[in-house]
Design a protein that fits this description.
Elements: H1 34-45, H2 55-62, H3 66-78, E1 82-84, E2 89-91, H4 96-103, H5 107-123, E3 126-133, E4 136-143, E5 158-160, H6 165-171, H7 176-185, H8 199-212, E6 215-218, E7 225-233, E8 239-248, H9 254-275
Antiparallel strand pairs: 1-2, 3-4, 3-8, 4-5, 6-7, 7-8
Helix pairs in contact: 1-2, 1-3, 2-3, 5-9
Length: 276
């Protein structure tokens, strides 16, 4: 296995000024490992829209120099997390271990799974649980409806918070300053002609979610797809997660979501809240 060493300055393990900040520009403790931070930034850059990367792609997405990105990618290949065909780097199954460490120890996902499955069986649509992570909704539990064409994202998938039902619900419990911080973390753009992609329109949509106790994203992520989400609060009343259902908008109208699906999602959220 190839060993990749990060340069140090002075005492062994001491970070240079450039290394004392992670790729996002945040200060990091002196004891932090710059190489690890860079590698994790590249791992996090993989997603549905970036299933494979070149060195240039990784450098751009993780905000690294090309040599640093290349060292990190080759190290991940050596460790069995990535495959390399000479140009592109792609994730291998071992990458699943990183996410499963959280999913297998989170009591929230363990409690939620049977409830999501029950709701899926009642609604005949896919039902999910998501949490907020730096401007994105991350799906940590899911009960998938069996269909020829699946709806929504898979377990571990991420959606921009500004235009997703789960994201707006998760943001609705925060202060305006905190909301703006999350919105700034993800550049807003029109994914469809229906996408709300300006700060003022998104803030109004989040305020409406807070007022109504639920949010609907109607063909904002993809034409023909809609979703509804409700909050799950912890014992202190803060929003900890969001339960959502994703549907084909041609089969399930917004009116049906509000009249028939909303009570089921609220019941799931209430049972989760009692268990937290």
């Amino acid at each position: 296995m190839t060993s990749v060493k990060e340069p140090v300055n002075g005492q062994e393990g001491e970070l240079t000024p450039e290394e004392s900040a992670d790729p996002s520009g945040k200060a990091r403790a002196k004891e932090g490992m710059a190489g690890l931070a860079k590698g994790l930034a590249i791992i996090e850059a993989f997603g549905a829209s970036t299933a494979r990367m070149t060195v240039s792609d990784a450098a751009h997405l993780a905000d690294l120099s090309r040599p640093a990105a290349r060292r990190c990618l080759l190290t991940l290949v050596d460790l069995g997390y990535l495959a390399h065909d000479g140009k592109f780097f792609t994730p291998l199954p071992r990458m699943l271990r990183l996410g499963s460490a959280y999913l297998s120890t989170s009591s929230l996902t363990q409690i939620a799974q049977p409830l999501l499955t029950s709701a899926r069986d009642e609604l005949h649509e896919s039902v999910s649980l998501a949490v907020l992570d730096e401007g994105y909704s991350v799906f940590i539990a899911r009960a998938e409806a069996v269909r020829i064409v699946s709806t929504g994202v898979k377990l571990g998938g991420r959606l921009p918070a500004y235009c997703s039902a789960t994201g707006r619900v998760l943001l609705s419990g925060l202060s305006e300053e905190e909301i703006r911080h999350h919105l700034d973390a993800t550049p807003m753009k029109h994914l469809t002609t229906r996408t709300l992609a300006t700060t003022n329109t998104v803030l109004r949509a989040i305020a409406l979610a807070a007022q109504n106790g639920y949010a609907i994203s109607n063909e904002e992520l993809e034409i023909g797809m809609s979703a509804m989400a409700v909050p799950v609060r912890n014992r202190s009343g803060a929003i900890e997660a969001a339960v959502s259902v994703s549907v084909f908008s041609g089969r399930v109208s917004v009116e049906t979501l509000e009249e028939k699906f909303l009570p089921v999602l609220k019941a799931v959220a209430a049972r989760l809240q009692r268990a937290l």
